[in-house]
Amino acid sequence: MNELAWGTNNDLNDNQFYNRVEDIRFISDLLKSSKYGTSPSILITGIRGVGKSALMKKVQKKFRDENFLVVYIDLSSSDAYQKDEFSKEALIELIYDEIIKECKEFGITTVDKKIEKYIKTHDVTLKEIVNIKGYPVPFLWTKKNYKKLANFVMELPQYLYEEYADNINGVFLFFDEFQIIKELGDDLTDFLWYMRSFIQKQNNVSYVFSGSMSVKDSLIEEIAGSNGAFGGRILTIEIKPFSHETTKNYLNDKANYLKFTDAGFDQFYECTKGIPFYINVFGNLLPRNISLDALSVKENFIKVLPILAMHFSNSWFRLNLQEQKILTALLDDSLNRSGIAKKLNVTSGAIGRSLNRLLDIGLIEMENNIYYMPNFVFKAWLKNEYKMKGVYPYKSI
Ligand SMILES: Nc1ncnc2c1ncn2[C@@H]1O[C@H](COP(=O)(O)OP(=O)(O)O)[C@@H](O)[C@H]1O
Ligand SMILES: [Mg+2]
To answer: Which of 268, 284, 308 is the last residue of a domain?
Structure first.
């Protein structure tokens, strides 16, 4: 039976993965050219939940089947990020670990011996050699000589291609949740240019960057802008929500137990805005095989808001009081900086830091000096909390 995927699962099987035919074709055609020695870089943008990771995993599977080595590097999976200690050392280590993992997946079983030799010639120190399923996997010592180690890891993909040219049609590095790289702070620009210096020399390795970044995110300018590290050398593709019609066909196909009236479906689309994450989570929680009109869709939407807004409420509870107050100030109006300060009864200078932090984590955006909250589910959740409890869930002081 056809079912909607769970909202937390982005490794969808063929039955769960819907549409995106054009996006897959476009990305695939670009990537295929790496076989002939030109390697494009791609930046995949789009709002959270639109299906970027699911798409990358799909493309990864497709190319794995065609003997490409596709390394998937999710920055949020780094231990250091989880512990709030993200650094360039941690990133390099993560890239290395994922390359080794993918080599295993690919079935390159002699990689360790060759890599060991390669490590020796690069004069990098090993942390330890761990035995995984009978293969000795070298774990790198990062702190000792970061530069050498980083050079080694960044050259490794092209090296693998050359060493295994008979087996490997090309090497791709997919970076997901790439916006986390902003946590490098002062090191960010240098690091991007450093990456670019390698990417440029590698003829058979392609890089795909993705993350939940709005088109206004300053990182996009740093990467793809005319003065950015990859400016003019990277193609940006924006993944769009499902259209009204695609959403309708999708639900007919995968969830025909949802019996919307016409107005009920319009309300469903209005609530989810065609974003697959919201479609799937909401669709999985709606009652089945009963008629759903606009009102019952609306009532159910309010009931499931805490689940739909989980990511945002988690972020909310990690903010400080001033950051939270800025958000509630922006719930009903978009405001400039002094407008926000006025609402908070503080000087404009006193909120600079909070504004930057909120921009960095994507909870607010700014255009023409006007700040606003871009996510409608986050807004609806906060408003509903207020409606139910009479207060916003501020950090208690
Ligand atoms: N092509 C698709 N078909 C069906 N469901 C999808 C598709 N893409 C995404 N989804 C659903 O949306 C959820 C969020 O997708 P994800 O790729 O994690 O979004 P993003 O990486 O853009 O934040 C997935 O867990 C899945 O349930
Ligand atoms: Mg994702």
So the answer is: 308
Least confident of 65-74, 118-127, 205-214, 367-376: 118-127
Of all protein residues, the one whose alpha carbon is nearest to atom 15 of ligand 1 is 51
Q: In this structure, which residue's CA is closest to atom 13 in ligand 1?
A: 277
**Among all chains, which residue has been given the structure tokens 């607010």?**
364
122-174 per-position pLDDT tens digit: 665 555 554 444 445 555 554 456 787 788 889 889 988 988 888 899 999 99
Q: In one letter, which amino acid is 348?
A: S
Ligand sitting nearest the alpha carbon of 54:
1
Mean pLDDT of the 220-246 span: 91
DSSP 192-254: HHHHHHHHHH-SSEEEEEE-S--TT-HHHHHHHSTTSTTTTSEEEEEPPPPPHHHHHHHHHHH
- The model carries a pTM of 0.90
Buried b (16+ CB within 10 A) or exposed e, 7-44: beebebeeebbbbbeebeeebeebbeebeeeebbbbbb
Residue type at 380 in one-letter notation: A
In this structure, the answer to whether residues 234 and 249 fall within a common structural domain is: no
Ligand 2 centre and the CA of 258: distance in Å?
27
Domain encompassing residue 267? 244-308
- Ligand 1 pocket: which of 53, 179, 310, 375 to mutate (most atoms within 8 A of CB): 53
Q: What is the 88 CA–ligand 2 centroid distance (Å)?
A: 21
Residues 352 and 261 in one domain: no
